[in-house]
Design brief:
hpI Integrase, Chain A, 3 domains, Tyrosine_recombinase_XerCD
Length: about 450
């Protein structure tokens, strides 16, 4: 709802309509002329008196209708964007993973504070986002109790939030797109971030279409170029087998506790192309580890890291179905003898958790992504040259997975088999790793030369 305190009143004027007197109440709201006709002067004066009393009481006036908020019919306003966004989050809660819930909320932290009326005493942006994060965008049983100051911030937001129907107007949608195009600090946001937030807005409006608020998605009518995001792996991040071995050998040298317990996890990312969250939930029963030859991993679950407020258990890590797979669907990955040996040694040295997980802290917990990152960065300093450390080469543990898939493709393994082992579709695989498939460059160039010589 777009509201204002800028209201000016005129006198009731008499007009004639087909010989009958008509009394017209006139006033201006935010500079826009408003009028309403009555059969008698008394009714017109009473209406103007109501408007003046509302203005005197400090009420906000709706710019669209010209009426004070207290005089708006409920059906004229419908749900506010805040109310609809809250319902959207709760409707999707039970069928969404923790990271999806967090992605939805992160987008709404940008959108909800932007889609408000220009009302006085606006709270700071950080305070608005805080009450949304800890209270308004969570199920009731998970909400943090608000302080009096936070309660007043939420109250302001509830009053100021635009009606959902306002998103049918182009200028409102452009304000929303502008909000998701910058970070909370006001800097230009990354392309992937903008695309994710726009996807949330688009999906929310699709729900509004389903509920007959709009006949079609109004966002589809806005001419706005979605920023291009980099989806292909940068070959400069991909290590060769010798570099990978140097990095894995350096990991146990990092500290006395974390490094030795994490070498086999990083080896799973490189030799089996596991995602870090898949390695985190790997259990002994998932592994066939013969004394010699190739082994087998049958993945059942992943253990992604999330923020406690968004997980089902209220814990940082919880087991989930595999990415892009149905519940209880598994993925088989044959593993080379070198990884079989590393896993056998790890289990013999550190054992497993009570639930069978292979990679745990000394107390049976799950290592955080920050712990992985710390060990990895220290290993890079030990295994790589200063120039390589300063470069993007294997900058993240996840780059080991990219190296594995690139190695398989360049070794001539059919794309269908690589996609099956890596947990990709063939289409995504070829698009993401297009720049890394350079193993047949000389052969291809030779064929082109032959064709040119004919």
């Amino acid at each position: 709802m777009n509201t204002t305190y800028d209201v000016k009143f005129s006198q009731v004027q008499q007009r004639s309509n087909r010989g009958m007197p008509v009394y017209v109440a006139r006033w201006r709201v935010a500079g826009k002329e408003k009028s309403k006709s009555f059969r008698t002067k008394g009714l017109a004066n009473a209406f103007m008196s109501d408007l003046r009393q509302a203005a005197k009481a400090g009420e906000e006036f709706d710019v669209a209708t010209g009426l004070p908020v207290s005089m708006l019919a409920p059906e004229a306003t419908g749900p506010s964007f805040l109310e609809f966004a809250q319902a959207y989050v709760l409707r999707r809660w039970n069928m969404s993973a923790a990271r999806t819930r967090e992605t939805d909320a992160y987008a709404l932290l940008s959108l909800i504070p932007a889609l408000v009326a220009d009302a006085p005493r606006r709270p700071p942006a950080d305070d608005l986002r805080e009450v949304l994060r800890i209270h308004a965008l969570l199920p009731e049983q998970r909400r943090t109790d608000l302080t009096p100051t936070q309660a007043s911030v939420l109250s302001w937001l509830e009053r100021a939030s635009l009606p959902l129907t306002a998103l049918g107007e182009a200028h409102v949608l452009r304000a929303a797109l502008a909000a998701i195009s910058v970070t909370f600090a006001g800097e230009p946001a990354g392309a992937n971030t903008v695309r994710r937030k726009r996807a949330v807005l688009h999906h929310l409006l699709e729900h509004a279409v389903e509920q007959k608020v709009f006949s079609s998605n109004p966002l589809d009518e806005i001419k706005w170029t979605v920023p291009k995001a980099v989806t292909a792996v940068d070959p400069r991040t991909v290590v060769n087998p010798a570099q990978a071995k140097q990095l894995l050998d350096a990991i146990p040298k990092v500290g006395r506790k974390r490094g030795p317990r994490l070498k086999a996890l990083f080896a799973c990312i490189y030799y089996a192309a596991l995602r870090p969250e898949e390695a985190a939930d790997l259990r002994q029963r998932n592994c066939t580890l013969p004394e010699s030859g190739w082994g087998l991993i049958v993945l059942e679950k992943a253990r992604p890291q999330g923020t406690k407020r968004w997980t089902n258990s209220g814990e940082t890590h919880e087991s989930r179905s595999l990415k892009h797979r149905a519940d209880k669907e598994t993925r088989e990955i044959p593993i080379p003898p070198v990884l079989v040996a590393i896993l056998r040694e790890h289990i013999a040295t550190f054992g497993t958790a009570e639930d069978g997980r292979i990679f745990t802290t000394r107390t049976g917990g799950t290592y955080s992504s920050s712990a992985h990152s710390y060990v990895w960065q220290e290993a890079r300093k030990l295994a790589l040259t200063p120039a390589q450390v300063a470069s993007s080469l294997a900058a993240r543990p996840y780059d080991l997975r990219h190296a594995a898939v690139s190695l398989w493709l360049n070794a001539g393994v059919p794309a269908v088999e690589v996609a099956k082992r890596a947990g990709h579709s063939v289409d995504v695989l070829l698009r993401v790793y297009a720049k890394c498939m350079d193993g047949q460059q000389e052969q291809i160039n030779s064929k082109i030369n032959s064709a040119l010589d004919e």
